Each structure stands twice: as structure tokens, then as C-alpha cells.
Amino acid sequence: MKTFSLQSDQPSKKPDFLSSLNEQQKKAVTHTDGPLLIVAGAGSGKTRVLTYRIAYLLQQFKADPQQILALTFTNKAAREMKDRIRNLIGDRAGKLWMGTFHSIFSKILRFEAEKIGFGQDFTIYDTNDSQTVIKQILQELNFDPKEIKPKTIHNKISDAKNQLITADTFQEKFISSTLDDITARVYKLYGKRLKQSNSMDFDDLLVKPIELFNQHPDILDKYQDRFKYILIDEYQDTNHAQYKMTRLLAEKHQNICVVGDDAQSIYSFRGADISNILNFKEDYENATQVPLEQNYRSTKAILQCADSIIKKNTKQLDKTLWTDKEYGEMITLLENFDERDEANRIANYIYDLKMRHGYENNHFAILYRTNYQSRVFEEALRRKDLAYQLVGGLSFYQRKEIKDVLAYLTLLVNPHDETNLLRIINEPSRGIGNKSLQDLLSVARNSGRSLWSVIEEVEKYDVYKPAKARVREFVTMIHDLRSNLEQGMKLSDSVKAILERSGYMKALIEENSQESMMRRDNIIELQNAISYYEKGTSNPSLSAFLQEISLITDSDKYDESKPAITLMTVHASKGLEFPVVFIVGLEENLFPVGGREGFEADIEEERRLFYVAITRAEEKLYFSHCKTRFRFGEENRQLRSRFLDEVDSGVVRTETGATIRQNKDRFSNDDFDSGHDSSTRVEYDWKTPKSNNSHRSTSTTIEYEYTDGEDPFQVGAKVIHQKFGPGKIISRSGLGMDTKVVVFFKNRGQKKLMLRAAPLKVVG
User: What is the per-residue pLDDT across 666-700, written as a single tens digit (0 to 9) for each?
Assistant: First the structure.
């Protein structure tokens, strides 16, 4: 890659590196002033455009490095961009404000946290930490966490935060059920508990900067002045809080450049709002739109397949991908008996492609809709002695022993972190029982103080004497370890001191089991990671290390250089590419995923997800589905995915070379199994049209009749739902098994349900 100098007295009008860009890429790179929307199709070189745009801004003296803010969604993307920019402009790239939304905003909060009542060394809670706090709060409010799931409450609080709905506003305006009322009570206490612990959860890293700017306009003005140019990658994945934050920061200069592809918006379950990219030109009236349509990744056949799918969606920005690459091979459809057959045959295909065509393990990816599908593929690949890496499994940093050691380290930075304090105050066991801890917690709750401030003065309180002595020893240990760190002890030496002083490693050695030995090895690996961090960082600090690992995402666990076949969900594959891709489990209610608890699935987003999966492939692409699949211990007849009937049949062939059968009704009599009964849960009988086979299926679009005459589920009918209780149908749409109804439930508000799946019963 060519380099250029920034030392010239006069900016160059046509720097050499622009010659490697196509015309649309050049237009995007050289449009320096005003709002810019770059609609970047899959494989169209958006990372190159962002990289060169930043380099161009610097070369044209439009901004200094520290005046450019570049926001991404993964640490991997940020590292890749920064490395490319460093190749272009040298070490000045290190001064750029570039990283994920969460890492950049946490950096701002480290500087400004005291203005909103937090210390600079606040802890960042992951999902498990947050759910631990919520579980404790539920118990304090006399709710059973087995009945009211902490995960459910956390999801509702997270959704509210990302919509910038405060606990007070939620309490005032968003109570429509008993669960909402419980959520409101937990939400308020949860916020107080985090603040007492000098901690923020992942959502707070997006919400608290907005709170900071609203309360302190002078701070907002400072950062608006600082960030003269703002660039945002994957803009279609932004949620409301990210949208609001970037609008605030861009308000003064209006030099905001967003890059994204509405066709790859697949994170609505995380709060992503596709309207942010669709409405960009309405938000910024003078915005310029530049489409990137030349694909550099996939063959013509793969692009033709992808285009035929995404065109089925309604709302989308105008673009059509094209490529100069060869037409390539047809997509192959694998039709399997069950999931074991599917896994074994794909393992055989991979082995054959390696032997006959020279592919390496890391050239292959097996993509599935849900994590549980990985198991049979892992078993099949092991049987063929094919190395693989599983992306999205249990993270190294989520393992118990690692969380324990990190909890000790966290207390050296932030001893008021109650969740981590409770985690290790008696780990390994040191004689501090639950009764003594509850007594100390009661003092903390009643006095409004942190648990740490209470146990520092344990002598003042009525606590079981042997436990009191153990608490004193624990406090002394933490004080000593903190003092050593403050006096300059290396981080790696601090870990050794913790393991020795706490007795943690000794306890694992004395247990002398296979599991304890594995845990010991994992702790040694953590020590290696800390040593590596120290050697590779100019000014290492424990606080910075803890922040870095707290912001690790699933995509950061993927190692593209590892000689292994990649197993991952389609969601995790976004942004990656592979020579050979297998998209498996293409069946109704799996891909596309079915509605949950009667809620209608978002088929347009599922279709975008399929589009993302297709466009990961460079050379060869395989679709796969099963006729039967085991779910919950029972064998179920499967209906192949509707997406297989939507793709351009001209580019897909079966293994025999035949054109795939396009099935307008999406099933035929052959799709029924004479020994299979999958009767619907709706509280009346269905009667199929006349057929040689009278057995029923839950996954069809054929119209059905009612054995007792009129359809009872009419608008105005009173119904009852097993979970939501009594309600009334206020509208309906669709036909037969595709019928949908909107029901207003007295205790849960309005819900849109699929009639074939929702446990509804007419009650009068």
C-alpha cells in the first residue's frame, strides 16, 4: 500500500492513494464538508473508504488527528481501521479518537464522571453482573427470582435505558402490567445500587454521557468543539441513545459521515433502529448520499442470489450490487434427513473440498441461526479430525475462576463495587457465613452506605465474632494489596500476590481434581494475558486493563488466522468473509426463527439476516435443511424455509444438479408424515382442505376451515391467554394458519399474536 507525507506546506489536490479507489469511493472520500450518508453494500470496501477518508481529512489539513471521532461497533473493526490509517499516515493515527461507542464514551466518562456523581475508576458491569444485582433486589422486595426472572427484568430495564426512558419516567408512563410495575420498582433501586457501588452497566456507557451533556452544557460545548469530524460505521445498527448522542456531538460542525447498509440491519433485539439510516437525509437536510455498489467479495452467482432475497423487503435504500468477478459456481442445496445427517454430510463436504481443491480449515464457515445448533457440528467435525473454533460460546472472561480473580483486581481499583465484593469476600471459604453478610448488608441498606464502608468499620456492629475476625483479615488484605499497587507494583505481580494472599490457588491445588486443574490453567492464562498487556502498553494501569476486557465482544474472540473451521451464528458473522460458507438449518421456525410466545416474527429482519449470511461467501455457498429435527427430546417434521422459495432458482441447484423446486404454497402432501401429529395449540379444531393425507401440520399457509362453522376469533371477541390473561381482539389480518390478531389485554396492554401459535381461547 502506498504511503504519503503530511509534511508538505501545501495540501495536495490529488494524493496518490486515491488512484486505488473506484469513482464512488473517491466521491465518498473527498466529500469533506457537511453531512454525508454512504450506503455501502456488502463487500463494497466500506472499511477502505472510512480509512482513506480519515487520511484524506488529515492530508488536506481539514483537522488534526484528535479532532476526528470515528465510532465502530467492534474492537476488531476499530483495530483494523487504525492499523490501515497508521500505514498511511504513521504514528499520528494513535491520536485519533477511534473505537467502539462503548469504549469512546467510557473514555469521556472517565474524564467527566465526577460531574455526575461517579468516581473515575468506576466499574463496568457485564450482563451477568447486572442480573446478579437485579436478583438481589428482587429478593429484597420479596419476589422469587425463579418466578420473576432477573434476565427478563434486566432486558426491560436495558430497553428503557436505550430509549432514554429514566426510572421515574418508566414509573409514571410505562406501567401496563404487574411485570412492568415490578420492573419500575427494581429499576429505581438498581440505579441507586449501581451508584453506591461506583459502577455502570453497559447501557449506562451510552446513557450517562447524554445525562452529562444535558446537565452540563459547557461540557457538551467542549466536546462539540473538539470533534470537528465524526464518522460512524454500521449506522444501521445504532439505537436511540447512540443516535441522540451523535446528533448532539455533530450539532455544531455538521460534519457527520455515516456508513451503513439498511439491508444488513439485524440487531433490533438489541434496540437497533433501522429508521436512523432510512431517515438520515431528513435529520440532516443538506446531506449528500453516495452509494457503494461494486462488490469485491463474492461471485456474480452469489450476488444474484443475495439480491433476489433482499428485493423482497419493502423499505430499503436504493442500491444494486454488482461485481467484476466471474460468475462462479451455482449455490448447492443440501437436503438432509435430520440434524445429524446434516452435520455429517457437511463435515464430509469440507473434508472433500480440502482434499480435492486445496482449501484450508480457516476457509470454511458454518453459519446457523441459534447457538444450540453447534453441538452436532462439533461432534461431526471431531469425528473427521477437523479442527474448529466455536465463536459465541462461553467467553474466557466469563469462567468462574477468571471472574473471581478479576473481582479481586476490581476491588483494588474500586472497593465500593458491591457485586464483586460479595463474590469473593468468602471465596475461597474463609469462614464468613451468609448470616453475617446479611447482617452487614442490612446495615449498609439502612444507612445508605456502601457495603465496603460498613465492613471497614466491622468492629462497630453486632456480627458473629469469628466472622468479624475473618472480615477484618479480608479488609486488611485488600488494603495491603491496594497499597502495593499504588506504590508501583506491576499488575502481573499484583495477581500473584492476590492468588497467594487469598489462598485461591492453594485451594485449587488442594482440591486436586481434573476440573480444579483446568481452572488453575485458566488462571495461568489470565496471568499471561496481563503480562502481555503490560509489555504491549506504554503506560499500563489496572483500571485500563479492566476496562479493556469489560468491553470485549463476541467478534473479538474470532481469530481469522487460526487454522480451524469457524462455527458461529449469522449475527456473529457480520463483517466477516470466507471462501466457503454453509448456511444450515434453513427451516421454518428456525431460519426464519418463529414467533416467541405467540408474538409475530419480524420476517423482514430475518430476511436481512439471511442476506447477511449469503454475502459472507466469496467463492462457494451451500444451503442446507433437514426433513426432521429433534426439539425438546421429540422428533419433529420440519418445513423448509420460505427463503428457499424466494431465492432466484436460476442460481441454486440440488446435489444432483437439478433446479430446486419452487413451492408457492410452501408445502405439499409429501411434506406430511403419516406417523406425525403436530396439532395446533389453538383451542378449536382445524379441518384441512380435501387431501389424500389427513394429518395436520402447524407450519403451512393453506387456508383452513372450522369444523364448527364460523371462525370464533373475530374482532370484538373476548379471549383469554395462558400468560397474559383476559383480553379483547381489536383487529385481525391474514388467512388460515397465517391469521394474526391484535389483542388488548387488561393487564398487559396491546399484543400482536399469531393465531396458530398463541394459546388463546374464546371466553364468551
Answer: 433 333 332 333 322 223 332 333 333 333 333 33
Q: Where are the beta strands (DSSP E) in 486-643?
A: 565-569, 578-583, 617-626, 628-631, 634-637
Q: Residues 52, 17: contact at Cβ < 8 Å?
A: yes
* 8-36: average pLDDT: 78
Look at residue 593 in the predicted model and tell me its pLDDT: 87
201 is an active site residue = no
* Per-residue confidence band for 10, with pLDDT thresholds at 50, 70 and 90: very low
Q: Give yes or no for a contact between 39 and 292, defined as CB atoms under 8 angstroms apart.
A: yes
Closest by CA to 38, choosing from 27, 54, 52, is: 27
Query: 498: which residues sit within 8 A by CB, 6+ positions away?
Result: 405, 408, 409, 481, 504
- Catalytic annotation on 234? yes
The helix (run of H) or strand (run of E) holding residue 23 is helix 23-30
What DSSP state is assigned to residue 601?
A: P
CA distances to 7, 315, 316, 624 from 604, in Å: 50, 9, 11, 21
> Which among 234, 342, 417, 588 is annotated as catalytic?
234
Q: Which of 25, 26, 46, 323 is catalytic?
A: 46
Active site residue 299: no
User: pTM value?
Assistant: 0.77
For the CA atoms of 532, 102, 420, 482, what is the dihedral angle to 10 degrees? 50
What is the rounded distance in angstroms from the CA atom of residue 96 to the CA atom of residue 68?
6
Determine phi and psi for 366, rounding to 5 degrees.
-110, 115
Per annotation, catalytic residue among 25, 59, 132, 264: 264
| Catalytic (active site) residue 46 | yes
Catalytic residue among 27, 30, 32, 47: 47
Rounded CA gap, 346 and 386, in Å?
Answer: 12
Based on the residue annotation, tell me whether 707 is a catalytic residue of this protein.
Answer: no
Length of the chain, please? 764
Among residues 616, 629, 642, 696, the one annotated as catalytic is: 616
Grid cell 442460481 is found at 651
Q: Is 264 a catalytic residue?
A: yes
